[in-house]
UniProtKB/TrEMBL annotation:
One of its GO terms (biological process) is DNA integration. The keyword Thylakoid does not apply. This is Transposase. It comes from Staphylococcus aureus. One of its GO terms (molecular function) is DNA binding.
Length: 210
């Protein structure tokens, strides 16, 4: 059994416990009193029952832990959150160490990437969807984070006449992710590849691409 801790203002308030059994490995989230956060633990068990991978369960455990750390710092019960709390949580993730004087044994100066923030919000929204569907909450907070949008693409597809009225749920709390810059080989690099090519086929493919 392994533990991972997070500190706020020098007081340990949240802990992830890795639990190994004959059925495999799962995770538990403990509060400042070393008591399990029951609904979070049940959700992680649910992920286990639907055969989610170990990496997925670990990712979800850490994402939920971060959310509960935020709630603890704000003294907010997870069953009494509002839309504004979700917005504030995103802001908190961008600068957690400056925002609430959060301390960690594994502090990283680098801010959390938009991709990680979006993944965390997906985990949180799925957690609340689970709570609602299992009748542990009367309000579906998942709906707060999504709105219905009409399916659209830049160019009309072959099946456009079928999909034109199709609607999807859009995450309105999604942070914009920067586009990855496509790296292109220089003329010198292409020339070097051609020189190192061992056969006609490889040289042909390189010339075809560049």
């Amino acid at each position: 059994m392994y533990t991972y801790t997070i500190k706020i203002r020098n007081e340990i308030i949240m802990k992830i416990v890795e639990v190994k059994s004959k059925n495999g490995t799962n995770f538990m989230i403990l509060d400042g009193n070393n008591e399990p956060i029951v609904d979070a633990v049940r959700y992680l068990k649910y992920l286990d029952s639907v055969k989610k991978s170990l990496n997925t369960k670990k990712t979800y455990a850490y994402a939920l832990k971060n959310f509960f750390v935020y709630l603890e710092s704000k003294k907010i019960c997870y069953k009494e959150v509002s839309f504004d709390n979700f917005v504030d949580f995103i802001r908190w993730m961008k600068t957690p160490f400056e925002y609430e004087n959060v301390l960690s044994y594994h502090r990283k100066e680098k801010s959390i990437s938009p991709k990680t923030i979006n993944l965390t919000m997906t985990v949180v929204s799925n957690f609340y969807d689970y709570l609602y569907r299992s009748k542990k909450l009367d309000v579906n907070f998942y709906d707060f984070m999504h709105m219905e949008s009409k399916y659209s693409k830049k160019y009309k597809s072959f099946m456009h006449h079928i999909n034109k009225d199709y609607r999807t749920l859009k995450n309105i709390l999604k942070v914009k992710e920067p586009k990855k810059k496509i790296e292109v080989l220089t003329n010198a690099e292409v020339k070097k590849l051609l020189e190192e090519a061992n056969n006609i086929r490889d040289k042909f493919l390189i010339q075809l691409l560049y």
